[in-house]
Automatic annotation (TrEMBL):
GO BP: any one term: integrin-mediated signaling pathway
InterPro entries: Integrin_bsu (IPR015812), Integrin_bsu_cyt_dom (IPR014836), Integrin_bsu_tail (IPR012896), Integrin_bsu_tail_dom_sf (IPR036349)
Organism annotation: Ameca splendens
Domain Integrin beta subunit tail intervals: 2-65
Lineage of source species: Eukaryota, Metazoa, Chordata, Craniata, Vertebrata
Transmembrane stretches, start-end: 66-88
SUPFAM superfamilies reported in the protein's UniProt record: Integrin beta tail domain (SSF69687)
Keywords noted in UniProt: Disulfide bond, EGF-like domain, Glycoprotein, Integrin, Membrane, Repeat, Transmembrane, Transmembrane helix
UniProt domain Integrin beta subunit cytoplasmic: residue ranges: 89-118
Gene that this polypeptide is encoded by: ITGB5_2
Name of this chain's protein: Integrin beta-5
Amino acid sequence: MPCLSCQPIYCFVPASSEKKEEDGAVLCLYKTDNDCVMKFTYSEHASGRSILTALKEPECSSGPNAFTVLLAVVGTILLVGVVLLATWKLVITIHDRREFARFQSARIRARYHMVRKTPLLNTLCLFY
C-alpha cells in the first residue's frame, strides 16, 4: 500500500567525473511537514545493509519578519518620494533660470528701445 501523505525524497547522484561521497554515498534531501529540510547520505554497505547518515540538524526556514518588511516598504516609498522631489526641484530650477534670462533680455531690449525711440530722453541723456 503506497504512502499517500509521504513527502518525496530528492537524491543527487554524483556523476562519475565528480568526487563521490565516501563509499559511493548519495546526498538526499527530505522536506518535512513544517517546511524543514533534512540532509542525509544514503549508501549500501557491502553486507547489503542500507546506511543513512544525517549530515546536519534540520534546516527550518522562518517567514519574513513583519517589522523588517514594513520598514523596507516605508523606506522605499520615502526614497522614491525624495528622488521625485529632487527631480521636480531640478526641473523647476532650470525652467525658472531660463524664464529669468528671457525676462532680463526683454528688459534690456525694452530699455534700449525706449532710449532710442524717445527724442526727449535722448536730449536729456546728452546733458546728464
